[in-house]
Amino acid sequence: MDLQVSFRNPAQKEFYYSTARNQCFSGAFNNGKSFCGCLKCLTLLMSFPNYRMAIARQTYKDLKITTMQTFLKMCPSELIASHNEQDGVTSLTNSSLIYWLHLDKVDEKTLRGLEVNSYLVDQAEETDEKTMDILDARLGRWDGAIVPDAMLEANPDWPRDPISNKPLVPSYGMLLTNPDTEFHYIYRKYHPDSPDRKKGYFYTEGEWDKTLGSRETYDEALTKDQEWVDKYVLGKWGRSSAAIHFLDKSGILEPNEELLERIRSKGNLFRVLDHGDSAPTCCLWFAAIDGIYICYREYYVPGQVISRHRKAIHDLSENEEYSGNYADPQIQKTTAQKDGGFWSVRKEYMSDDLKDDLGNPVPALFWTMADNNEFATRNRINELLKKSLRFKHPVSGETPAIGIYFIKKTPEYPNGCQHAISQIGAQRKKLIGQIEGKSFYSDEREDSITDHAYDCIRYFVAMHGTQPQESRRRPPKNSFAYYNMLLQMRNSQVPVAGSVQ
Fold it and tell me: What number is the average pLDDT over the span 371-393?
């Protein structure tokens, strides 16, 4: 297929010709992202017979009325062999296929069975990182695409499979996105200013292209409020007024052995659990030390049984002593039956009959039910995130400083915080509507944003005042913690919360 391609702005050209495995085109409205993305898809589909492409968006309605329409308008009708909107499949005359995916309804099993050469996700800022990680793992799985002989003759050094020697077609994971906050996974992985940018990831961005559309529309866009203009006209990533919390970059700590040893030897330590059956289970470890809180360890794993969660949390705890173990109060609901009686997730964590994969007993974990008053806890978290003379930075000693910190995950410290950092910054209020470009939000939190690690932060802060208390105290008689201590003394073979595990 002979395409006469021209571009309206430099960002379009950079994205179209990028050969990086993972690519991101970010920017404002009206800068040609969707058109350029669909054009690149069409080029790949028609250049390589029997090519497989997934084109996705978060909801089917938006996929159908935007991205799909853009592609079908661009693609010559004589190239389309069939288009089944209900099944979400378009077949081209050279046997190439497009799978149209809406990611809010697609299940993990369907994604894991997908075999494609490339994918394009429009409005990628709406998507969940976990879903995108699964989709990315399917990249290049289809081996039936054909490299035409003419291309091989023109390029004798065409890439080939090292085992079969079969010519390889290009495979790209392509994201089109509007800017979001600096805690979004796209910013973290792709943006040049991100300290965690993935090696080899391609990124380009562009402002509103005034050559596309009418001048009147552009002038009207400039009358919106500044946040709207920054994001949708200038294409800037940054904080939104919908954000519930803002974590200053000084609150993200690099791991170092001196700090970790100080936490272990001097800190008042706590664990917090948010259990998930189909969703991930998260456990965070906190320390109250030197007048501030530090979240120094994170466990975040989906799709496992409780015995594996118990063992993993026990092993990560490294013989530490804890002054408190808090959990989502939902785990004490008796929603299942076992051995003729009602059972709960909490009892499953406490039971003494669970064994690991090798048949060894799994140490029990005892959890105190946390306060789940979200609105009160939000304010406590924000008090800790606000710089104050009460706090000193745990590394530099500078003040004013914030009162809660997170030690980040690194290759050298793989159990550091990743989801806790991203999720506390991602939480936002629900959008009620917009009037003349100004957004209005309710006090309710947007429930489509992943919050398993964030809930652990809420539970921990809810169980404490805004000023950390460092002193260790013997638990009062008849308290749950006192019961745990007595139980340990009676049965040293089954460690319990607050004990050495």
Answer: 91
